[in-house]
Amino acid sequence: MTIKRVNFTGRRRIARDRVDIAVYDGQPRSFDATINLEGLSFLPHAAVYLEATCAGSTVIERFRFGEVGNVQPPPSRALAKLEGENVFFTLKVVDRTERFGRILGIAEYIRPQRAGKQTVTGRRGILPIEPFELGQQLWRLDFRNDHDVFLLVNKNAPGLIERVRSDPLFYAAIYPEVVRRILNAAIGRNVELDEEDERWPVLWLRFGKELHPAKERPPKPDDPEEDREAWIEEIVDSFCEMHALKDKFLAATSGNGGEL
Amino acid sequence: MIVREFNASGIANCKSFLAECRIHPQMPFPWDLLEDDSLTKRISAELTVEPTHFGPRREAADYLTTLLAPLPEDEIAQNAGLWTWLSLFFFNEVCPYRAGQRTVRNDYSYVFEPKHSRHFYRHLLFIAWYAARLAKPHDRLFMTAPVSSLDQVTDRVMSRLFLTRIPCIFEALDRLYWDEGRGKARAGIVDQKVVKPGDLRHRLPIRVRQLERTYDLFSLTGDQLVELLGVEFQQGDNASAKV
Asked: Between A10, A56, A60, which is nearest B165 by CB?
């Protein structure tokens, strides 16, 4: 349970393992949370909040958990307005005396440790997939959350989510472009590859560096465009090689004489 | 007429009408769609609606707020069939004849898409009700435009959910951007090309994003937020933010 100062804002990062969350199935779903702030020397009257949201959602549901000196769950902990299965929480400790509203401590992107069938638990892959209302689009990347990038998949296309995960045709067609676009966006976030940082740009740039044939560190946003593109294309090439995308594509279409 | 909601087939018919109307702007309005039992059904409360002329969006907001008051707000906010039906009923208001022609906008201006984050706030009737619900009593910035169009101030604010989620944002926006003399938003605050100190289009979202790293903006009052935004925003009569 480490705590450290992360930046010039003065707020402190609270270790995620100080929060234990269980989400229960239902209409709506609800949750229980245990929050341990012992030994963190926050002001005793600082307010404690848990905020819940999910991938692609426009909603943040906010719950007051009393004060640092007296953490108390609110009577209602229904997630009435959240529909997605990838639910995550943010814990905030907020000053209400000296500098009103200042965030004193924060733990972001907390996943439920336990959940029913309607909710995903624990740490998931680098690109969680979320069924979503997308009109006539089949898929879209969602970068709105700082801590994850999601692959949204049209929930009204039966079987599509399974095809996105495993169909060689679909996989070969979309994932190189997904990798390309995410790496490009990640470079734009201008982050450092801090080992403890689990925000999506850091995870993806670390992934890119590992996949790069020369293990080159990622370029910076103000590096020449051709350098950024070259780094990304090396990784996309490696990704396609690693997964043998063309071979799998051809094998999958061989019954059709190699045609779609 | 008793208010109804379209089913999926009704919404598809509306889209067909809109497509047809773009090609033949003078085509007659298909009133029969509105009461066709195969395309519509009654909603949970019996509400009566009459043809009404709306001037500025405020008039539509007041009318719709009163009309829909018997329904739960969450139900209203998610009901694609209801808002699409209302758009068709008030089609002459949201898509008026001008010089004998209609200019039919994108479908989302009339066909409500509650789950689409870039379309839902562009529905011309829904936005009137929604802005009033969200921003009252500080909603006047969003109420001066005609109901048949989506002005840039409303578009810029309502498209940014990280702004609209902040409880005190509308009080702060009203203090920062309302021009008493003009009776509407200050000029120059949503200029697309020119970035001006304290403007709404460019500087406000950037500054709010900065602040939310340090402050719990949900906890603040309008006064506190305006103060935190900084000097560039605290110049209501600042010539730099005017055309």
From this structure: A60
A11 contacts B214? CB cut-off 8 A:
yes
Query: What predicted TM-score, i.e. pTM, was given to this entire model?
Result: 0.76
pLDDT in tens, chain A (260 residues): 434 434 555 678 899 889 999 999 999 999 999 999 999 989 999 999 999 988 666 688 999 999 999 999 999 999 998 888 888 899 999 998 877 889 999 998 888 999 888 887 876 678 888 888 888 899 999 886 666 788 999 989 998 888 888 888 888 999 999 999 999 999 998 888 876 677 889 889 999 999 998 889 999 998 888 899 999 999 999 999 999 999 988 888 876 555 55
Model pLDDT, residue B88:
95
Contact assignment for A101 to B115 by CB distance below 8 Å: no
From the CA of A144, how many Å to the nearest CA of chain B? Answer: 10
Q: Which two tokens stand for residue A246?
A: 């063309």
Q: Which residue of A7, A58, A100 is in closest CB contact with B219?
A: A100
Interface of A with B in 75-134 (CB under 8 A): 81, 92, 94, 96, 100-103, 133
Min CA distance, A64 vs chain B (Å)? Answer: 11
Mutual angle of helices A225-242 and A168-188, in 10-degree steps: 150
Q: Which residues of chain B does A49 touch, with a Cβ-Cβ cutoff of 8 Å?
A: 216, 218
Give the one of B213, B219, B228 whose C-beta lies nearest to A94's C-beta: B219
Provide the pLDDT for residue A259. 57
pLDDT > 80? residue B236: no
Distance from CA of A205 to the nearest CA of B (A): 22
- Cβ within 8 Å, pair A9-B116: no
